[in-house]
Design a protein that fits this description.
The protein is built from no helices and 7 strands. The protein has 105 residues and is mostly beta strands. The protein has a single domain, classed as Immunoglobulin-like (Sandwich). A hairpin with a 2-residue loop joins strand 2 and strand 3.
Amino acid sequence: MSGRVTDGVTGFPIQGAEVYIKGDSSRKVTTNYEGYYEIPPKKDFDWFVFVCPGPCDAMSGNFVVVATHTGYGPEEEEVSGCIGHPSSVCNGRKEHADFILQKSI
């Protein structure tokens, strides 16, 4: 799972934004200086908790991914597929979600 977080007004990347799968903050990551993030695969292969067993192509797991940063309102994106699972299990497919954060008042 990867993507980019940018400012809703300027379009500039937001460094240090936190991105995580709702309900699994153990793999919370922060964006780099260009606003990019990547949530790595779980090492313990317990991803069956999130989706039904079987070939990844046949799964329709829905996940809510959250991006947040101080001074901005949080954004959520629903993504379907193989999020954070070993790419070998997912036939090399990686999910992608970009976020545009709006400054909070």
